[in-house]
Amino acid sequence: MSTSSDTGGRSRPTIVDVAQRAGVSKSLVSLVLRGQPGASESNRTAVLRAAEELGYRANAAARSLAQQRTHTVGAVLSDLRNPWFIDLLAAVRAELTAHGLTLFLSEDFGMDRDASVLDAFIEARVDGLLCLGTLPPAQHLLSTARTLPTVVAAGREPDLPNVDVVTGDDRSGAARAVDHLVELGHRRIAHLAGTGRAADLRTDGYRDAMRRHGLDEYIRVEVSDRSEPGDHLAAVALLQPDDRPTAILANNDYAAVITMSHAKQLGLDVPHDLSVVGYDNSYLARLGYIGLTTLDNNYADMGRLAVQRLLARIADPQSARTVSLLDPELKVGSTSGNAEH
Amino acid sequence: MSTSSDTGGRSRPTIVDVAQRAGVSKSLVSLVLRGQPGASESNRTAVLRAAEELGYRANAAARSLAQQRTHTVGAVLSDLRNPWFIDLLAAVRAELTAHGLTLFLSEDFGMDRDASVLDAFIEARVDGLLCLGTLPPAQHLLSTARTLPTVVAAGREPDLPNVDVVTGDDRSGAARAVDHLVELGHRRIAHLAGTGRAADLRTDGYRDAMRRHGLDEYIRVEVSDRSEPGDHLAAVALLQPDDRPTAILANNDYAAVITMSHAKQLGLDVPHDLSVVGYDNSYLARLGYIGLTTLDNNYADMGRLAVQRLLARIADPQSARTVSLLDPELKVGSTSGNAEH
DNA sequence: TCGGGGACTTGGAGCGTTCCAGGCCTCAAA
DNA sequence: TTTGAGGCCTGGAACGCTCCAAGTCCCCGA
C-alpha cells in the first residue's frame, strides 16, 4: 500500500517493489543487481527489466548499513585556488573509479571550519580520507586520522605515524632549479620563499644547492606569507636596485608571476635582465604565453599513487607509515636565460 | 559482545553503547543528541559525557534511513578551472550550513562521465542538486532533474520546466561594458565571443548596445571555442593591422588576458592603444596587478539566492520554475581608457 | 485520600539493504 | 526406488538510527 506499482507513489521504488514486479523475492533481486552469479537467466532478465521500468536506484544508506562499507572516499582540499588541484583531482578520481570507489570533495575553509567538514565525512562513514595540499594544523584532523585511513597528497602535513604521504620531492626540485640557473651562468640567485613544511623543504633545497655550487655568499631568502600582498612585498625587497639578483627562484608559479609583473614595472626585462623560475607547473605557468620556467610535480602519478596507498591502508589500517617522494621535472620555458655578466 | 565498553572493540560505538554507558535507553540518547528538549538535566549531561568519552559519531546512513531525509545537497561543477567557482562555492556552502545542510561536490568530467557522478548523488539520496556553471547537455541530467529538486546557478542550462535558474544578467552586463567604452570615446568596439547560452546572451547584449549607440557599422564579433588556442586565434584575428578596433570586450577574463598578452607582443599598449574589458571579475582580473576592467556577477548574492531557491523547491518540488537574473556590476580597472582619435 | 496532569523515560516498529541458513527441485548414481 | 548433490530461490535476522505510543513517577488540588 505504501508504494503503488506504477510511478504513482511519490517515493522512490525499493527493492521490494522490483521483486514484486519481477515475481521473485527481494533476496534474488539483490543478488542480480549486485551482479552475482547464481540466478537463472529468465529471472535475471526479469529483474533487470523490472528495475529499469521502475527507475529503481539502490539506496546507498541502506546498503552501507548492511554492508558496513560505503565504497566512498572523502577528500579535503586545502585551497581550491591552487591551480594544480585540478590535475591531481582528475588523477585521483580516475584511479578511485577504477577500483569502484566514489569520491566526495569538501573544501576546508580555515581552521574553524575543519571540524564540520570532517564530521560530515565521518558521519557518512567514508572508507578513507584524502588530504590534498598542505592543511593548516588542526587538532580535529589529528584525532580523525587515528580512526580513519588517511593519506596526504601534495603536502607534508599532518605528520602522523599512521598517515601516508605522497608528494613531490620539494628539496630536489628546488635544487634542480638552482642547477639550471647556474648552468645558465647565474651566481646571484635569490629565493622568494613561502611558509609551511613544503615551502621550507624547497628553501632547504635552494640553500643546499647554492652551497654545493660554492655560492654561499649569494644565498638570499625573502619570505612571503602565502598572500598576494606578501608575495609582492617580497618581490619588491628582492628587486631593490642595490645588489639585485640576476635570477629568482619563487616558491610557486603565482609568486613568480607577481615577481615578473613587478620587474616589468621597474623596467626590467625577463629573461634578459632577470630570470624567473616558478614551481608547480600550474596553468598559470602557461597563461598568456608567458612560458614560465617551472617544476612539474607530475600530478597524474601522484594521484594514482596516493589512491593506491589509501587502498592499502584501508585493507590494513595498522600498517607502517610510508612516505613517497616523486621526482619533479624541470620544464624550461622562456623566463630563464643566460646571465649577463 | 560485539562492542566492548572501551575502545577495545574495533568498530565505532553506536547509540546503544552510549546508552549503556550513560545508563539510559537509546531513545533518550537519540533525543539528547538531536538537541531536543524533554530530557532531565542530569541525564542530558550524562549522555553528552558518555558520547564524548566513547568518541561517538552518528551514522549518517542509519539516520537518513530512519528519517527519510539526508540533509545533504550535491553540487555538480562544470569546470573547476573557472576561477569564479570559488566565490560561488563559498557563498553556497555558507548558506547551506546556515540551514543545517551539508554540501558534497563532484566535478563533471565531460558528457560520458556525468552518469556516474549523478548516480552517486542519487544513490546517496541527496535532498537537492545544484548545477554550477553551464553544463554540457546530458540526457542523464534531464531525467534526474525530474525526480530530484534541482537549481542551476551561474549558467542557463539545463532549460527545464521544474529547474530554477539563478545567474547574472549577461545581456545587461555586456551592454554596460559597451556603454562604458562608448563613454570613453570608443566607437570601434569589437567582441571576442564564446560559445554556449550565456556567451550568446553576452553577444546579444553587445550587439544591442552597439545599435543603441548608433554604432551598427562597427559591430564585429570573433568567436572562440572556450579553449586557449581558440581564444588566441580570435585575438589574432581581431588585432590584424587593418581596421583594428580600439576596444575589445571579451567573453571572460581569461580571454581578455590572452588578448592583452597578444597585444603586447604586437607592441600595442593597454590601455593607450587598446582598451580591454573582461567578464566575471575572477582573481585573474586582479592577478599581477593587471587591474582588468571587468564585470562582477556578485557571486555571494548568487550563491545565497540559489540555495534559497533550492530549499523552496525541496519544500515544494512541483512549484513553478523561476529564473532570477542578478545585475552585474562594472569594475573599472586600468585596462580601459580614453580612445585616441 | 484519590485523581489528574505534567515531566520524563522506554520498548519496539520501522527505514532499505545484505547475507546466511535453509528449502525445494531435479537429475544422476547406487 | 532411494540417496545425494547441486542449482536455484526464499525468509528472516541484522545494520544503527528515529519516532511514536505507552509507560512510570511525582506533585498538587479537590
Automatic annotation (TrEMBL), chains A, B:
Presence of the UniProt keyword Lipid biosynthesis in the record: no
KW Transcription (keyword) present: yes
UniProt xrefs under PROSITE patterns: HTH_LACI_2
Listed CDD domains: HTH_LacI (cd01392), PBP1_LacI_sugar_binding-like (cd06267)
InterPro entries xrefs: HTH_LacI, LacI/GalR-like_sensor, Lambda_DNA-bd_dom_sf, Peripla_BP_I
Record's keyword terms, sorted: DNA-binding, Transcription, Transcription regulation
Molecular-function GO term, any one: DNA binding
Pfam families tied to this protein: LacI, Peripla_BP_3
Gene3D superfamilies hit by this protein: 3.40.50.2300, lambda repressor-like DNA-binding domains
Record domain HTH lacI-type: where: 13-67
PANTHER family named in the record: ALANINE RACEMASE, LACI-RELATED TRANSCRIPTIONAL REPRESSOR
Protein name, per record: LacI family DNA-binding transcriptional regulator
UniProt lineage: Bacteria, Bacillati, Actinomycetota, Actinomycetes, Mycobacteriales
